Amino acid sequence: MAAIHMRESSEYFKGLDSQISTALYKERLLSGNIKFVIGVITVKRKYKKSSHSKSPSYLLHSMALIDKTVKWSKYFDSSVPFICNVDLNPNDHKDALNLYAYLPYSERYGNNSFNAPLLTLPNSDSTFKSWTKHASKYNKETVDYSFCLRTAAYLKPNFVILIEDDTIPHIDFPTILEHMIESRLKSLPKYAYLKLYFPPKWQGFAAELSTIFDLALWASIMACIVSLCLLLLSKCGLRFSHDVLMIDFSKYYLSLQCISKIPLKNKAFISLYLVCLITIWLLGRQNVEALRRLWRYFYRLEQANGCCTQAQLYPIDVVEALSEYLLSVPVTTHTDLAISDFAAERDLPAWQVEPNLFFHNGLITSLNGGQKHPEEFMFGL
């Protein structure tokens, strides 16, 4: 499947006129009225080569989908994507270099297509480019994130969206984001960020009040639907040659005999509800919550969890402060936790969209080139 996506993405860019593509984005940049700047943070993946492995080329796939979205979605018609290449040796990142002919870009340790000056560190004459040694891999990741935020802010958009190169948008991303920003978030006070992706493996049912409520809610909906179907069947006069055994919770068997109608007594409904409860739990919250994709009004805006930075949206008025804050945290602090701490310290709410508006397909990590367990991606298939 991944090979098919990469081939389709490659064919997509081959079919583009690079001059028309760059001219379009140049025109948008010169307009001075940019709604979204979408930065895709990328480094060359370090992976173990074998006779059966090739470069994962995550950037190619994500940029193809982002480019399509920004060019064809009306809500993004004044928006600009860019490749934020934070590799220490940007010229070695061939996947990024191959896309420079079609898309704006900025290199932390090289050039940019915006004719922007070298970005300096806050209250210093030093530049991001001159900072080549980092105390830890997490420190570099955090400084890279700060650089990409500052690069996006340089273009003066209304919102900044930063995504990692192994993250791809859902087909409903433009529609749902428009609904969230124009209908939901406008009525809320100032916020730190909107999380567009949270790992599905941590979205299951747990011993938390919110997920317990979800379990009860979905079980109630399922029980009502099943009850309605049974009633409709009874109205149709359907007959069965045997009893339908529901479940045995006590001394007696509880059964429904479908002859001319189906009586739903209290015990029957309780048994039915328990069956639905177990069914929903076995299906998993991740899969059941996917039903919310049927209508934009079903999507939920929840308090954000701290973990992960695969895809996040920031209002422009917090970007500079956040960028500075990330450069001041301890060198062992993970980027996602630093961003969460920033929101907490400034008493700003942080929100999260459910279901996710992005998928994560990064089997090979950018931090150490290690391979994640495929089970982590089962809910995104």
TrEMBL record:
Gene Ontology annotations for the cellular component aspect, listed alphabetically: Golgi membrane
UniProt name for this protein: Uncharacterized protein
Keyword Transmembrane helix tagged: yes
Keyword Transmembrane helix: yes
Origin: domain of life: Eukaryota
Keywords: Membrane, Transmembrane, Transmembrane helix
GO BP terms: GPI anchor biosynthetic process
InterPro entries: PGAP4
Record field: transmembrane: 215-233, 268-284
GO MF term list: glycosyltransferase activity
Biological source species: Elysia crispata
